[in-house]
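User: We ran a pulldown and think these components assemble together. Before we commit to crystallization trials, I'd like a predicted model of the whole complex to look at. Sequences follow.
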Amino acid sequence: NAGVTQTPKFQVLKTGQSMTLQCAQDMNHNSMYWYRQDPGMGLRLIYYSASEGTTDKGEVPNGYNVSRLNKREFSLRLESAAPSQTSVYFCASRKRGNTEAFFGQGTRLTVV
Amino acid sequence: GQQLNQSPQSMFIQEGEDVSMNCTSSSIFNTWLWYKQDPGEGPVLLIALYKAGELTSNGRLTAQFGTTRKDSFLNISASIPSDVGIYFCAGLRDDKIIFGKGTRLHILP
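Assistant: Here's a predicted model for the assembly, 221 residues in total across the polymer chains.
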Protein backbone atom coordinates (compact mmCIF):
# COMPACT_ATOMS: atom_id res chain seq x y z
CA ASN A 1 0.00 0.00 0.00
CA ALA A 2 2.33 2.74 -1.29
CA GLY A 3 0.03 5.79 -1.06
CA VAL A 4 1.83 8.82 -2.49
CA THR A 5 5.33 8.19 -3.84
CA GLN A 6 7.76 10.97 -4.67
CA THR A 7 11.04 10.65 -6.52
CA PRO A 8 13.78 11.54 -6.01
CA LYS A 9 14.08 11.98 -2.25
CA PHE A 10 17.13 14.23 -2.52
CA GLN A 11 18.55 16.29 -5.38
CA VAL A 12 21.26 18.89 -5.84
CA LEU A 13 21.10 21.09 -8.92
CA LYS A 14 23.29 23.82 -10.30
CA THR A 15 21.70 27.16 -11.07
CA GLY A 16 20.12 27.04 -14.51
CA GLN A 17 19.72 23.27 -14.66
CA SER A 18 16.32 21.73 -15.22
CA MET A 19 14.68 18.76 -13.60
CA THR A 20 11.32 17.10 -13.05
CA LEU A 21 10.03 15.95 -9.70
CA GLN A 22 7.84 12.90 -9.99
CA CYS A 23 4.74 12.04 -7.95
CA ALA A 24 2.46 9.05 -8.23
CA GLN A 25 -0.50 7.91 -6.14
CA ASP A 26 -2.19 4.53 -6.14
CA MET A 27 -5.39 5.50 -4.31
CA ASN A 28 -7.39 6.50 -7.41
CA HIS A 29 -7.64 10.08 -6.14
CA ASN A 30 -8.91 12.87 -8.36
CA SER A 31 -7.03 15.83 -6.92
CA MET A 32 -3.28 16.21 -6.66
CA TYR A 33 -1.13 19.00 -5.28
CA TRP A 34 2.43 20.28 -5.18
CA TYR A 35 3.66 22.28 -2.19
CA ARG A 36 6.97 23.72 -1.14
CA GLN A 37 8.00 23.99 2.49
CA ASP A 38 10.52 26.56 3.68
CA PRO A 39 11.53 27.29 7.29
CA GLY A 40 8.98 29.53 8.97
CA MET A 41 6.79 29.64 5.86
CA GLY A 42 4.69 26.54 6.26
CA LEU A 43 3.47 24.76 3.15
CA ARG A 44 2.78 26.94 0.13
CA LEU A 45 0.73 25.65 -2.77
CA ILE A 46 2.56 25.75 -6.09
CA TYR A 47 0.08 24.06 -8.46
CA TYR A 48 -2.82 21.70 -8.13
CA SER A 49 -4.87 19.47 -10.37
CA ALA A 50 -8.53 18.83 -9.68
CA SER A 51 -8.71 16.02 -12.21
CA GLU A 52 -6.83 14.39 -15.04
CA GLY A 53 -6.19 16.93 -17.75
CA THR A 54 -6.62 20.03 -15.61
CA THR A 55 -4.08 22.09 -13.69
CA ASP A 56 -4.34 25.39 -11.83
CA LYS A 57 -1.93 27.81 -10.23
CA GLY A 58 -1.59 27.98 -6.49
CA GLU A 59 0.04 30.64 -4.32
CA VAL A 60 3.60 30.47 -5.70
CA PRO A 61 3.58 29.11 -9.29
CA ASN A 62 6.35 31.27 -10.80
CA GLY A 63 9.34 29.27 -12.02
CA TYR A 64 7.43 25.98 -12.14
CA ASN A 65 5.38 23.97 -14.59
CA VAL A 66 3.28 20.88 -13.98
CA SER A 67 1.86 18.00 -15.95
CA ARG A 68 -1.03 15.76 -14.94
CA LEU A 69 0.09 12.87 -17.08
CA ASN A 70 -2.77 10.60 -16.06
CA LYS A 71 -4.89 10.07 -12.98
CA ARG A 72 -1.97 8.56 -11.05
CA GLU A 73 0.86 10.93 -11.88
CA PHE A 74 1.46 14.65 -11.35
CA SER A 75 4.93 15.98 -12.12
CA LEU A 76 6.57 19.29 -11.24
CA ARG A 77 9.20 20.76 -13.55
CA LEU A 78 11.81 23.39 -12.90
CA GLU A 79 12.99 24.66 -16.27
CA SER A 80 15.87 26.79 -14.99
CA ALA A 81 16.55 26.19 -11.32
CA ALA A 82 17.38 29.13 -9.06
CA PRO A 83 18.79 29.14 -5.50
CA SER A 84 15.44 30.55 -4.31
CA GLN A 85 13.90 27.22 -5.28
CA THR A 86 15.93 25.40 -2.66
CA SER A 87 13.20 23.82 -0.56
CA VAL A 88 11.44 20.64 0.45
CA TYR A 89 8.74 19.76 -2.05
CA PHE A 90 5.68 17.75 -1.08
CA CYS A 91 3.14 16.11 -3.34
CA ALA A 92 -0.32 15.26 -2.03
CA SER A 93 -3.51 13.67 -3.31
CA ARG A 94 -7.14 13.76 -2.23
CA LYS A 95 -10.30 11.93 -3.18
CA ARG A 96 -13.05 14.24 -4.36
CA GLY A 97 -15.64 14.63 -1.65
CA ASN A 98 -13.14 13.81 1.09
CA THR A 99 -11.21 16.38 3.06
CA GLU A 100 -8.14 14.31 3.86
CA ALA A 101 -5.12 14.89 1.65
CA PHE A 102 -2.38 12.27 1.79
CA PHE A 103 1.20 13.47 1.49
CA GLY A 104 4.35 11.91 0.12
CA GLN A 105 7.57 11.94 2.09
CA GLY A 106 8.98 14.93 0.27
CA THR A 107 11.85 15.78 -2.07
CA ARG A 108 14.65 17.83 -0.60
CA LEU A 109 16.03 20.02 -3.39
CA THR A 110 19.13 22.17 -3.13
CA VAL A 111 20.07 24.59 -5.90
CA VAL A 112 23.66 25.85 -5.75
CA GLY B 1 0.36 35.41 -0.28
CA GLN B 2 -0.87 33.07 2.43
CA GLN B 3 -4.27 33.83 3.83
CA LEU B 4 -3.99 31.94 7.11
CA ASN B 5 -2.35 33.40 10.20
CA GLN B 6 -1.36 30.80 12.74
CA SER B 7 -0.16 31.49 16.28
CA PRO B 8 1.96 31.03 18.19
CA GLN B 9 4.89 30.25 15.89
CA SER B 10 6.45 28.02 18.53
CA MET B 11 5.72 26.77 22.01
CA PHE B 12 7.87 25.33 24.76
CA ILE B 13 5.89 23.41 27.36
CA GLN B 14 6.37 20.85 30.09
CA GLU B 15 5.14 17.33 29.60
CA GLY B 16 1.62 17.03 30.95
CA GLU B 17 0.63 20.62 30.19
CA ASP B 18 -2.26 21.56 27.93
CA VAL B 19 -1.60 23.35 24.64
CA SER B 20 -3.69 25.83 22.67
CA MET B 21 -3.05 27.22 19.22
CA ASN B 22 -5.21 29.10 16.76
CA CYS B 23 -5.58 30.09 13.18
CA THR B 24 -7.32 33.08 11.59
CA SER B 25 -8.12 33.86 8.00
CA SER B 26 -8.94 36.96 6.01
CA SER B 27 -11.53 34.97 4.09
CA ILE B 28 -14.09 32.28 4.77
CA PHE B 29 -13.31 28.61 4.46
CA ASN B 30 -15.97 25.91 4.30
CA THR B 31 -13.72 23.30 5.85
CA TRP B 32 -10.95 23.70 8.39
CA LEU B 33 -8.24 21.08 8.83
CA TRP B 34 -5.53 20.47 11.38
CA TYR B 35 -2.40 18.55 10.37
CA LYS B 36 0.70 17.40 12.24
CA GLN B 37 4.13 16.96 10.69
CA ASP B 38 6.83 14.81 12.26
CA PRO B 39 10.46 15.42 11.29
CA GLY B 40 11.30 14.08 7.84
CA GLU B 41 7.69 13.20 7.07
CA GLY B 42 4.77 14.71 5.23
CA PRO B 43 1.86 16.19 7.20
CA VAL B 44 -0.84 13.87 8.49
CA LEU B 45 -4.46 14.89 9.06
CA LEU B 46 -5.53 15.10 12.72
CA ILE B 47 -8.99 16.65 12.63
CA ALA B 48 -11.38 18.00 9.98
CA LEU B 49 -14.12 20.53 10.75
CA TYR B 50 -17.11 21.10 8.47
CA LYS B 51 -19.56 23.43 10.18
CA ALA B 52 -19.32 26.80 11.85
CA GLY B 53 -19.29 26.32 15.61
CA GLU B 54 -18.42 22.63 15.34
CA LEU B 55 -16.33 21.16 18.14
CA THR B 56 -14.58 17.87 17.34
CA SER B 57 -12.29 15.65 19.40
CA ASN B 58 -9.74 13.03 18.46
CA GLY B 59 -8.33 11.52 21.64
CA ARG B 60 -6.51 14.26 23.54
CA LEU B 61 -7.01 16.70 20.66
CA THR B 62 -9.99 19.03 20.40
CA ALA B 63 -10.57 21.48 17.58
CA GLN B 64 -13.24 24.07 16.94
CA PHE B 65 -14.51 25.72 13.77
CA GLY B 66 -15.10 29.38 14.58
CA THR B 67 -18.58 30.80 14.22
CA THR B 68 -17.42 33.42 11.70
CA ARG B 69 -15.88 30.62 9.56
CA LYS B 70 -12.67 32.65 9.57
CA ASP B 71 -10.92 30.98 12.48
CA SER B 72 -10.20 27.69 14.18
CA PHE B 73 -8.59 26.49 17.39
CA LEU B 74 -6.72 23.35 18.38
CA ASN B 75 -6.20 22.20 21.95
CA ILE B 76 -4.01 19.32 23.11
CA SER B 77 -4.57 18.10 26.64
CA ALA B 78 -1.97 16.44 28.88
CA SER B 79 0.87 16.66 26.37
CA ILE B 80 3.25 13.72 25.93
CA PRO B 81 6.68 13.54 24.25
CA SER B 82 5.29 12.20 20.97
CA ASP B 83 3.22 15.38 20.56
CA VAL B 84 6.42 17.15 19.47
CA GLY B 85 6.22 18.35 15.88
CA ILE B 86 4.75 21.07 13.70
CA TYR B 87 1.00 21.62 13.73
CA PHE B 88 -0.60 23.21 10.69
CA CYS B 89 -4.04 24.62 10.22
CA ALA B 90 -5.40 24.49 6.70
CA GLY B 91 -8.50 25.65 4.88
CA LEU B 92 -10.20 23.91 2.01
CA ARG B 93 -11.99 25.94 -0.66
CA ASP B 94 -12.67 25.17 -4.32
CA ASP B 95 -10.39 22.14 -4.25
CA LYS B 96 -7.45 24.18 -2.95
CA ILE B 97 -5.94 23.39 0.45
CA ILE B 98 -4.16 26.44 1.90
CA PHE B 99 -1.89 26.01 4.93
CA GLY B 100 -0.88 28.28 7.77
CA LYS B 101 2.78 28.71 8.66
CA GLY B 102 2.61 26.20 11.48
CA THR B 103 3.14 26.04 15.23
CA ARG B 104 6.25 24.17 16.32
CA LEU B 105 5.67 22.37 19.60
CA HIS B 106 8.61 21.59 21.88
CA ILE B 107 8.22 19.56 25.07
CA LEU B 108 10.75 20.15 27.80
CA PRO B 109 11.97 17.15 29.80
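The radius of gyration of chain A is 13 Å. That may be worth checking against your pulldown data before setting up trials.

User: Thanks, that helps.
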